[in-house]
Amino acid sequence: MSTAAYKGLKGVLLDLSGTLHIDNVVTPRAIEALAKLRTAGISVRFVTNSTKTSDERLYNKLTRLGFALDRSEIFTSLSAAKRLVKERNHRPLLLLEDDALEQFADIDQCAPHTAVVVGLAPSKFDYAHMNQAFRALLSGAELVGIHRAKYYAEAENKLSMGPGGFVAALEYAADKKAILVGKPMREFYELALKDMGLLESPGSVAMVGDDVLADLGGGAQELGLVRFLVRTGKYRSNDEEKAQAPLDGVFDTFADIVDAMVS
Question: Which domain of life is it from (predicted)?
Answer without folding.
Answer: Eukaryota
